[in-house]
Every structure is written in structure tokens, then in C-alpha cells.
Amino acid sequence: MISVEEALDRILSRVSVLGDERVPLLAALHRVLGETVTAGLDIPPWPNSSMDGYAVRSADTVGATFERPARLTLGGRVPAGGVAERALRAGEAFRIFTGAPLPEGADSIIPQEDVTADGGTVVIGRLVPPGECVRPRGEDMRAGDSVLERGRVLGPAEIGLLATLGHQPVRVVRRPVVGILSTGDELVDLPGALGPGQIPNSNTYALMAQVLEAGGEPVSLGIARDRLDDIAERLSWGLGCDLLVSSAGVSVGDHDLVKAALGRLGAEQHLWLVDMRPGKPVTFATIPAGAKGALPVFGLPGNPVSAMVTFELFVRPAILRVGGHARLSRPVISARALLPIPNPGRRRGYLRVTVTRGDGGFGARLTGEQGSGILRSMVAADGLAIVPGATTVGRGEDVRVMLLREL
User: Model pTM?
Assistant: First the structure.
């Protein structure tokens, strides 16, 4: 057996970032930017008002007090989306609204709540300093500024900035297409009726959901029966994908045929047994794929929890890597065990825990029984407690937890 860290190193050294594509602006959300974006204009493109109020010349308000206010003539109106019809003259004020361009001749804005309007006269009882409530030209960015770098994950703020620049479509790293295959004579796909000894095919749907969450595009390759030719044929259907993931059939039983099927397709195997529980039998191989290079293939265990945990540790980072992401790992925190967390086996445990936040930091406790077929333990889990083999984390002791969701 090899360590989780060595297994991940072997995987990541054999996957590379995909090419780019152009997509509509909103389709770029949570994607990785495939180009460096440079501002083509100043933002804002002209000085504008940050408040509803009155545009004035600061010099016209020098010496103004509540007792001896400045009285200016209302000379015009500047709505948002419009421009002043003429320049502001000495002794005048223009009514102006948020976002409207500053009239020529004005150098400041006084908010409307600080003014008394008396017919055609604007009464101001204080000095209005130059630049008050004015957003200067280029305050946000200047033409020629590099504003977003290649490799950045695009969130709502980045989408808004791109929209401000009128930058669309957007060049992003292509989303990896991930083929998902489940194997086993006992499996029945939804909504099929179950016969004696049969169970619903849950792994395909859980793994496809994990692919979506990681930013990939899942493609179901269906269910392969426990026959070498069927497994090899269905794996061959996915040779056009960017990654392949199968579940079950990777141990040492009579029906564990995935490794042999990969061999039939010319795959080179890079790992098999990993020092962890759940999920010791994990296969990673690459299939020669012509001009596309080597196609990464993961063979995960068949038990639902084992499949999901090994996906988190090995497949998810690979999907993120080929999708252009720099941050590949889930956050790992230190939490205090609220009850003992035992790992009686010799292998490192990735145990499902709930995590709570308190004044003293985080607390963690097991979700219950940790059997690899207990899918409800994953439903309840906020994270995976990482516990060395043959170790019990005592109540009140610290344990590392890989978070699976935001708290």
C-alpha cells in the first residue's frame, strides 16, 4: 500500500490543464479565466455624482455658514443617463442625480439633504470642499490596466467587472467531461424494478453529482455487468471524455475485473492499494488516447461511502487541476473532539463527522456508525476527520478535519 499523499502525487503528475473556449458572460461563473483581461477604457469614463444633490463650484460656497448661507441660482438639471446642456456658471447650482456626469465648471456635489431649495434658489449653509461626492474619472480602473489575470476563478464580482468593461464572450478553461461507469450484476438503474438480490444504482448518481460540484460535466456510461467484455466495452465508450471514473470491481474477488478491462484497453496502471479507510482498493491508470494524450481513469471501490470518499481525495483534485484551478484541496481545520473518535484499524481513517462552531473554535463528533455502506453517514457529514491507524482521538483532543461543506 502507498500513502494518500503519494497516490495523489502520482495522479496529479499525470493530468494537465485542458484548452480554452469562449462562453457567454454568465456561463463563465465559477469557471477559470483563460486570458488576462485589460481595461479598454477608464471606469468611470467621466467624473460623476455619487449622490442625489446639487453640482456646484466649491469657490461659490467659501465662507458659507448656517447663519450666512450661500445662495445660488438653480441653473439646470442633470439626470442619470443624460448630460448637462451647458457648463455651470459662477453663482449657479445644477440639480444632479446619482451616476450623472459632472457638468463642466462644477467641482463638487452637495447632497440634497444638506440644501434648502427655495424656488429657483439653492441655499447652502456650509463650505462644499472640491471633490465632495464626486467619483473621479478612472477611480475604479484606467484604460490599459490589467484587471483580471489568467487562472482566476470567476465569481459574481468578476462577472460584474467584465460586464462593466463590455467584455464578452469570455475565454475560460474548458470544463472536463467525466465519464461515469458503475459495475455489478446486482445493480438496477433508476427507475427499474428490483429483482431478488438486486439494489438501486446509487453510485452513478452520487458520483455524477460530485463531478458537477467539482466543475465537471458528467456523462453516464451506464452499468456494466460483471463480465470482462462488457466492462471493457463500456469503458471504451468513454474514450472521448477527459477523465473516466468507474466504481466497484477493483478488489481481488472473482468478479473484480476492472483492472483486467483496463489492461485490455492498453492502460498503464499507476497505483492500486492506498493506506486508508474506507477505500483501500483504488485504481488509477492512463489509457493512450492518440492526439489527446493519456486518458486518466479511476477505479473506485463499490461501497457507496468508499466511492464518495475516494472521489473526494483523488478524483476531485484531478478534475480541478484539468479545469485550470490552482486550489485543489478542501479546507482542513483543527477541531476539538466532542466525544472520542476511534479508528481501530491499522490504516489511516477518513471518518465522517459533524462539525459545530463555538466560541472556542470548532467541535467534531462522529456521525454514527462508520460502515462503508452507510450512506446516511455521508449525508450527515460536514467533514472527514483524519485519524492515524490504531488511534483514538480522546474527548477534548484536537483532530484534523477536511471540510466537505461550508459551515
Answer: 0.89
